[in-house]
Amino acid sequence: MYILEQNNKISLHIQLYEQIKNDIIENYNVGDKLTSVRKMASLYNLSKTTVESAYSQLVAEGYIESYPKSGYRVEDTNSVLFESKNAKSTLSNEEEIDWLYDFYPARLSQDSFPLKLWKRLFTKYIDESLDFCMYSNGQGEYGLRVEIAKYLAKLRGVHCHANQIVVGGGFIDSMGLLARILHKKHPVLAIENPGYYAARNVFESYGFDIQKVGLDNHGLKIGELKETKAKLVYVTPSHQYPTGVTIPISNRHKLLDWARQNDGLIIEDDYDSELNYINRPIPSLQGLDQFDRVIYVGTFSKSLSAALRVSYMVLPTHLMTSYQTNFSAYFTSVSLMTQKTLEKFMSEGHWERHLRKIRTLNRKKHNLMKSLLIEKLGNTMKIEAQGGGLAILINPTVDIDLKKLKEFAKKERIKIYFAKNVCGGDWDAIRMGFGGFKEEDIEKAIELFAGIWHQSLL
Q1: 3.90.1150.10, 3.30.1360.140, 3.30.420.40, 3.40.50.150: which CATH number matches 101-111+353-456?
Q2: Residue 338 in 3-state DSSP?
Q3: Torsion from C-alpha of 90, 96, 97, 100, nearest 10 degrees
Q4: What pLDDT does 21 receive?
Q5: How many CA atoms lie within 13 Å of 69's alpha carbon, on the beta-carbon side?
Q6: pLDDT confidence bin for 104, thresholds 50/70/90
């Protein structure tokens, strides 16, 4: 029995997540089934969204997995806690799997980072001219913000000044700050469904009322958005996460009109817009905004390095007043050394050259994986999303035992990923990440995947 406190400062889904996690560690075996979302919600008088958020976090951390028509089951966590506290643990549960091929859908290959150049810039600019005894600029070093503003104006069509940019230590860090800025005036957040669980979880943890809005072939359903009580909406308009849908220009104007007429705000997450392999990168929604209604959010994770943990927000001028008045004590967690090196990386033209290189490299990987999936899987598979980002999304067109597919994949040391595990809802697809592969390894990986795919067909 879990004890959940409605008046606790910790959100209900976090309370539930923590208690289920501890229960799994203490009492569950690998393969044990969890209580269904519907039953859990009824048992504890919670919303389905709250339970789904808790389960999504457990899925993201590898404690549980979602199986079609079977629900959520405990996974092999390779955790010392299972070894010490669960007497039924087996040797296989204790061993960390040495994955042969990992189709992680949101990473670059290790050799794509310009390490030698980065080290040279670091050595050149990290010297006695920097004052390491002073607190750095809490909003982010001005020189870096100037370079980000130049880049956004030139390549993303964003209209902004360096003074509107706030540098953060990754997406979650930026979203947490934004949630604190917005909560008092905009306590209800509309969000895409399916959509990015991390964004939803951050805002939910700050007490926002989350309103899920469906998608169609043109992205967020504007009519459905208008039926909510929200005056704040989170969207991924240039490459929707996870479906890959793009909001066309007509709907972008409708979305901006909604914000203007309702005194609303739009959070535009432009998470991997640079990585477009068919057309030119689609200009930002913020660039169309004439009424200061769009908050633009981006990171360097998908195109440079996830390990650097550098994100940024472009706040409308009216929100900068709130930021400066109430959050001047906020300090970005990005180190001065990282900021200074990135600033020089951008100012000397290396960033744009790197982007061209990354696009070319990943376009080749994307096209190779796409052609191999079509060749090896044929009409047993359809492509749900392709042409951008770091993954191709596929679904079977015939009956397949997905549980067997996962078991065979694990046996062959192939790590695969499902959209539903991080997005919730009914929509699902297998996310075939190509960015983390070396080009020469993709054919072998797809051949092995195709073998277990055909073994799993019913």
Answers
A1: 3.90.1150.10
A2: helix
A3: -160
A4: 84
A5: 4
A6: very high
Do 380 and 396 meet the contact criterion of CB atoms below 8 Å apart?
yes
pTM of the model: 0.78
Q: Strand, coil or helix: what is 406?
A: helix
**Count of CB atoms situated within 10 Å of the CB of 236:** 27
Determine how β-strand 381-385 pairs with β-strand 64-67.
unpaired
The share of the chain scoring above pLDDT 70, in percent, equals 93
What is the structure's pLDDT at 87?
A: 38
| Domain limits, the chain | 12-94, 101-111+353-456, 131-349
Tell me which CATH code domain 131-349 carries. 3.40.640.10
pLDDT digits (tens, 9 = 90+) for 302-314: 899 989 999 999 9
- Give the CATH number of domain 12-94: 1.10.10.10
What is the rounded average pLDDT of the residues 363-380? 97
Judging by beta carbons within 10 Å of its beta carbon (0-12, 13-18, 19+), is residue 322 exposed, middle or buried?
A: middle
**Cβ(72)–Cβ(32) under 8 Å?**
no
**pLDDT for 347 beyond 90:** yes
Residues in a beta bridge with 109: none
Please give the Cα distance from 338 to 291 (Å, whole number): 34
Q: Is the alpha carbon torsion for 164, 166, 170, 172 positive or negative?
A: negative
